[in-house]
Amino acid sequence: MVNQVDHQASLPFFPMAIVTREARPDEYAEAGRVTAEAYREFVPPDDDGDWQRYLARLADVGERATRTTVLVAVEDGRIIGCATLELEGRVRDGNGDAPLEPGEAHIRMLGVDPAARARGAGARLMAECEARARAAGKTHVTLHTTTRMMAAQRMYGRLGYVREADRVFPDGFVLLGYRKELSGSIT
Questions:
Q1: pTM for this prediction
Q2: What's the CATH architecture for 17-181?
């Protein structure tokens, strides 16, 4: 009897490419679910409800898509990451955020599905945000993260972001500030 070889099994597996693009309205719920799930691990055990309210805000992509650009990372037809890019307006007006500086774009709520991490979705979303900021004539990109988000801090450093002033809230909560100058910006 001849031993048949399964040639497909011997080929290396190459997942479909990760594509980044603007989220469509029919994808808002899934993009929000993925974003909230990415942040869930950072909810402290003694949360007094603040983080749960923040997870609900993260999930509400439709609300922020009216004022910002919401981007998704898609792999094999499935949303695996999401980021919000503020080019002209903020996610929420009147929440203590200063208006965008001239030339500034700001990235918020970057999240990758925990099951899809370490495959480049976060870096691809960052590159898409930077490309769109550049195309909009922005000269620099800013963002914030927390001390607990160590993987994000490492990625931002690898991508050329440098630390800038932190945002400290009255209750002592700190958001670490980052900034990157954009070369080739249209001015």
A1: 0.84
A2: 3-Layer(aba) Sandwich (3.40)
